[in-house]
Amino acid sequence: MDLLRLKSFLVLADTLHFGRAAARLGIAQPHLSRRIRDLEAEIGVRLFTRSQRRVELTAAGATLRLRATRILDEVEKAKVEARQVGTGAAGRLRIGFIHSSTYGMLPAIIRSFRAMRPAVMLDLVEMTMVEQVRALRAGDIDIGLLRSLPDVTDIAFETVMREPFRLAVPADHDFARRRSVSLRELSGQPLVMFPREASPLFHMRITAAFERAAVTPVIVQEATQIHTVMGLVAAGIGLALVPSSAERLPRAGAVLIDLTDPPEPADVSVAWRGGQPPLLVPPFLAAAHAAAAGLDEAGERPASAAKRAARRPGRQNKK
Fold this sequence. Notes:
Blueprint: H1 3-15, H2 18-25, H3 29-43, E1 48-50, E2 55-57, H4 59-87, E3 90-97, H5 105-116, E4 119-126, H6 129-138, E5 143-146, E6 155-163, E7 165-170, E8 180-181, E9 190-193, H7 200-212, E10 218-222, H8 226-234, E11 240-243, E12 254-259, E13 266-273, H9 281-297, H10 305-311, E14 315-316
Parallel strand pairs: 3-4, 3-5, 8-12, 9-10
Antiparallel strand pairs: 1-2, 5-13, 6-13, 6-14, 7-11, 7-12
């Protein structure tokens, strides 16, 4: 059914006057009359009764008026929604995230992003870093929130935060009364370590730091998740080098102290499949940078000058 005819029909149904309806539509009255005749011919019934003095809707016309109003309203809504999706004001964003981002970063990003794009629906899925890379390649997610991965060249990463490492020790350990410890002092100490395959960035950063310090770490246990590592430290299994997001975890039985020669900070990055980023990536990146800045201002991260410098965001686009 021709939408222009429906619109002309509704204007005439509102005015019940061919001259006024034609003027509102900006067309000649004979042109309007032809549209109405064509519409009646298409439907097969009369929609108006006409006399020299009056134009009235028939019962069929009154029924069509209700339906036509809804149809044109839906058409207008479809235009608006399509325009919003096409400009990134609306739509759906599928996000993969690592567990440690829930300690503060992810909630802050979601709050910031929703304030900027309230009409965008978010699908959130917790995944390991390896799972996120696979999902990005397969098109199952649009964005990943993870750590930058070495040797991944078909995924683009942008660093939004850099987390310095700290030393987690049992609360009854001698180091717990210290303000800082060097890696050399960890020689011979039992350590809980992040595994190479599941946590490649942490493993690489920590291993490289021990190599620089000429220390051979004594690994007594491996664990993937930061909260698990902290629990093992609290249980007295060993000490551990952990990113500073561990500060936002309940840690009864464990203490975090500074390292005088810490590993290179661990990146928190937004990732997407290499090439032209999806339309909603730029606003998500803006929300991520705003969230990182907000965490700093709230005092939820170390505030020393050295740590602020180590955490300063950078860009790595790997294609």
